[in-house]
Amino acid sequence: xxxxxxLVWSIFxxxxxxxxxxxxxxxxxxxxxxxxFFQVLALSAKGLRVITVSYPVYWNHDEWCEGFLKLxxxxxxxxxxxxxxxxxxxxxxxxxEYSFRLRVVASMIxxxxxxxxxxxxxxxxxxxxxxxxxxxxxxxxxxxxMRQKMDPAICxxxxxMVTKLESLCQSELASRLTLNSISNKIDTTKVSYxxxxxxxxxxxxxxxxxxxxxxxxxxxYPLAKLAHMKSGGNFxxxxxxxxxxxxxxxxxxxxxxxxxxxFLN
Length: 265
What we know:
Elements: E1 2-5, E2 7-14, E3 23-26, H1 37-44, E4 50-54, H2 61-74, E5 80-85, H3 87-98, E6 105-111, H4 134-142, H5 152-166, H6 170-181, H7 188-193, E7 198-203, H8 211-220, E8 225-229, H9 236-239, H10 241-253
Parallel strand pairs: 3-4, 3-5, 5-6, 6-7, 7-8
Antiparallel strand pairs: 1-2, 2-4
């Protein structure tokens, strides 16, 4: 399904359509809507409405937030629970900040995410990413795909994400890297003020994010629930989906029977 309002959002919408407060999954720089197929299959089978999205081409965070709000309104959703991976987690926070007067965000789950784009080394070239050839942009992203000895599940997840990366055109790659790199930091006071329940999923093995970045996210949301995984790599929702799905379900169960429930009541 595609939604168009100047720009096209591609989505998968699974589960009970009568639910007006679904789980919306936001992918990383290299991801597309279908990278969350494990979450869609498992969680929709348990009665959750799960929507996954692929981003159109946006060049700044406010434009992305405005477009995402239009998508929510187009789908006639009352509120959303957001599951964001890496860049998706940052955009989830940015949207909660952008829409804090509307109170559209019911809860958030972050997976290997961050609060400040200055952690990335491409900030100096963020303004010219739109003219860089696709092959170079892909190499910039692949540098974070660790290739040392990994367990087979993580290797399969990396291989799958490489195929997704290859499916993105130059403007999509440049746009996502720009959103990932242009200087911006979450105003966590606007997020915390809303009292949004948050769960942070992190891995103990190697990933693209340092412990310093992870600690900064924990400190930004001291009331967040922490869900640590012994292994998972950069894409635990693909390499170890059973664990990630369990964390998501536990997080969302507290809303069962309420107006913010993503379940079929």
